[in-house]
Write a structure and sequence with these properties.
Blueprint (H helix, E strand, L loop, with lengths): L3 E7 L3 H14 L5 E8 L5 H8 L4 E5 L4 H11 L5 E5 L3 E2 L6 H9 L3 E10 L14 E4 L4 E3 L2 E2 L2 E2 L10 E3 L6 E5 H6 L12 H11 L3 E12 L10 H18 L2 H24 L3 H31 L8 E2 L3 H7 L9
Helix pairs in contact: 1-2, 6-7, 7-8, 7-9, 8-9
């Protein structure tokens, strides 16, 4: 049994795997790690291509597209490795990419998840939007990173090269203790995709695990390979899942106030989409809020469990003040300025 399972979830990504799998195979020591592709019911030639061109890669064939969250849950259920890496199929890895994360796991048992520095495949001197050098959120649920605040993505000048505790590690390249992943419930399959790793890491952090970014090693992420930033489907998932995440994880003292303000912030976001000529994205915001209201009752038991198991009342990696206020009114556009 390998110590590490590198699991790549794929859905109709034959072209991407041809491009990015060679770097994973080249830079992943076979005596330490196995490489697994979990195929989410692809209808292209992904499985045939893997068997013909990458015979050393283990393939798990799922019967349909379960989405990012549940697809990984099903694949990791089959893993017996100590460490699992959730790796997107559009990530280029670098020599030694697993060494530092493994050393960090070895340094302390309380560290549950690790991510390397995530740089842009398109602009290799720039951070990548989805993860950068480790993620945080503000009290209203808005994610940001060392290297990315809202829409502003920084160039990497080594300014965030110090190892740091973060609230969330990106699902683009997420190292996690397999036993912890299974014990603490894995990803929320009902999210389907988007923000499921933030929800998962928030759950871990509230239960006193640590999440760490190790920027001494880097990988290069293409990003937006499945849904582009303008997709109404992506807008729907982001808004719905973010509201569900807040409901699941916020302490009782914050919940009502935060959700009340989020209503108005979401209305402003919908109005902005309309003014920018994106009525379908505006409609997606309203659809997300309707779906959130429908699902709240189903999530009551999940919320109660999370609160009961929480060991940290005020997580230091959650910003208590509004990120939007700092960004738009105070002009703070980078993590360092925050």
């Amino acid at each position: 049994m390998s110590r590490v399972s590198v699991i790549i979830l794929n859905w109709n990504g034959s072209r991407l795997m041809r491009q990015f799998l060679p770097s994973v195979i080249k830079n992943t020591p076979p005596d330490i790690a196995e490489i697994v592709v979990a195929d989410n019911g692809s209808t292209d030639d992904s499985i045939a291509m893997l068997k013909d061109e990458f015979p050393s890669v283990k393939v798990i064939s799922l019967d349909r597209n379960y989405g990012f969250a549940e697809g990984y849950n099903k694949a990791i259920d089959l893993s017996g490795s100590e460490i699992t890496v959730l790796l997107n199929n559009d990530v280029e890895v670098t020599p030694g990419w697993i060494d530092k994360p493994l050393a960090v796991f070895d340094s302390e048992a309380g560290i549950a998840a690790v991510q390397p520095k995530i740089l842009s495949f398109r602009d290799r001197k720039r951070f990548e939007y989805a993860g950068a050098a480790g993620g945080f959120i503000d009290i209203y649920g808005y994610p940001y990173c060392r290297g990315r605040v809202l829409s502003v993505v920084e160039d990497d000048h080594g300014q965030y090269d110090a190892q740091a505790d973060v609230l969330w590690a990106t699902g683009a390249c997420l190292f996690v203790r397999t036993a912890v992943f299974k014990k603490e419930g894995g990803l929320d399959g009902r999210f389907f995709a988007h923000q499921e790793e933030i929800d998962f890491c928030w759950r871990l952090r509230s239960r006193a695990y640590r999440i760490v970014c190790t920027p001494q090693t880097a990988v290069y992420h293409l990003g937006a390979a499945t849904l582009n930033a303008e997709s109404p489907r992506k807008t729907f998932l982001n808004f719905r899942n973010n509201l569900l995440m807040l409901y699941k994880n916020l302490p009782e003292k914050d919940l009502r106030r935060v959700l009340r303000l989020r209503f108005w912030l979401d209305m402003i976001a919908a109005a902005k989409f309309l003014l920018e000529g994106n009525p379908k994205n505006a409609a997606a915001v309203f659809k997300a809020r309707r779906e959130f209201k429908k699902l709240k009752t189903d999530y009551a038991a999940v919320r109660n469990e999370n609160l009961a198991k929480s060991r940290i009342a005020d997580i230091p990696e959650i910003r208590r003040r509004s990120l939007l206020l700092a960004f738009y009114l105070k002009g703070k556009r980078t993590y360092s300025e925050l």
